[in-house]
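Long-time lurker, first post. I've been practising inverse folding by hand and with some scripts of my own, and I keep getting stuck on stretches where the structure tokens seem ambiguous. Below is the full token string for one chain I'm working on. Before anyone asks, I'm not after the true native sequence, just a reasonable design that respects the backbone. If someone could post their per-position residues I'd love to compare against what I wrote down in my notebook.
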């Protein structure tokens, strides 16, 4: 890819990820579409992940490993993702955490979709949510328009998202929990004509960790309120959206139990 910009840039933050590195690289390198780069950002790990990755990617110019050099205010990958966006050269940017993975044809399917419709700005798919060895398919609600959902919660699985780089080069993840929701909500708010495509295919696996930031459901609800504040919602609107959020969360919970 010397002298040529890749079509996709894959941004992957990692923290103490030794146990995931081999399967991550194996799955990523098995993509049937090859025109991509991967930017891996060590987010203040204290294991040997950085060194292991540097050894494993030798000879593969598509992959590069960096260290986050900025002081973090809260836990989470917000800062590492911003670092990756600044480094990305691809026309479209994808986000993939190191303990998640895609189906082999994820990028090929998206490439074909984009080349058939160059007006698409943001694409995402369904994904498998793996918790205690149980896989459930996660997809957005069909009876609420996507842009309306983004005023209330996040229907876009970060690991399945692909977004036009030009749209986000000056649009950053904020220092807040649920930074992914705020990222998409602000992007749509500031770009009302954005073209979003949900592809109803299940093309990724998301691993739920009991120690993950989003594992605590009560805190998660509180973080939504924090995001509403950042979005500039008045108190009455925030309460209204929060009630709808509870309804949506109940629907999603029932879907996962079926």
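-- Answer (accepted) --
I ran through it position by position. Result:
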């Amino acid at each position: 890819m010397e002298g040529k910009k890749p079509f996709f840039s894959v941004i992957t933050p990692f923290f103490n990820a030794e146990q995931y590195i081999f399967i991550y690289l194996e799955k990523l390198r098995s993509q049937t579409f090859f025109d991509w780069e991967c930017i891996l950002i060590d987010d203040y790990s204290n294991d040997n992940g950085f060194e292991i990755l540097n050894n494993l990617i030798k000879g593969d110019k598509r992959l590069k490993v960096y260290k986050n050099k900025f002081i973090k205010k809260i836990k989470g990958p917000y800062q590492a993702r911003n670092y990756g966006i600044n480094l990305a050269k691809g026309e479209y940017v994808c986000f993939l955490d190191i303990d998640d993975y895609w189906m082999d044809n994820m990028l090929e399917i998206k490439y074909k979709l984009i080349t058939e419709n160059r007006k698409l700005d943001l694409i995402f798919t369904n994904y498998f949510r793996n918790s205690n060895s149980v896989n459930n398919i996660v997809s957005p609600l069909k009876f609420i328009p996507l842009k309306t959902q983004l005023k209330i919660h996040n229907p876009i699985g970060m690991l399945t998202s692909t977004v036009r780089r030009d749209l986000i080069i000056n649009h950053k993840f904020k220092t807040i929990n649920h930074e992914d929701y705020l990222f998409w909500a602000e992007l749509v708010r500031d770009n009302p004509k954005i073209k979003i495509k949900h592809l109803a295919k299940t093309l990724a696996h998301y691993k739920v960790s009991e120690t993950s930031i989003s594992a605590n459901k009560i805190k998660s609800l509180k973080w939504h309120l924090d995001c509403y504040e950042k979005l500039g919602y008045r108190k009455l609107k925030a309460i209204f959206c929060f009630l709808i959020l509870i309804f949506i969360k109940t629907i999603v919970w029932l879907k996962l139990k079926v």
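A couple of notes from the structure itself: The mean pLDDT is 92. The chain is about 35% helix and 20% strand. Happy to go over any region you disagree with.
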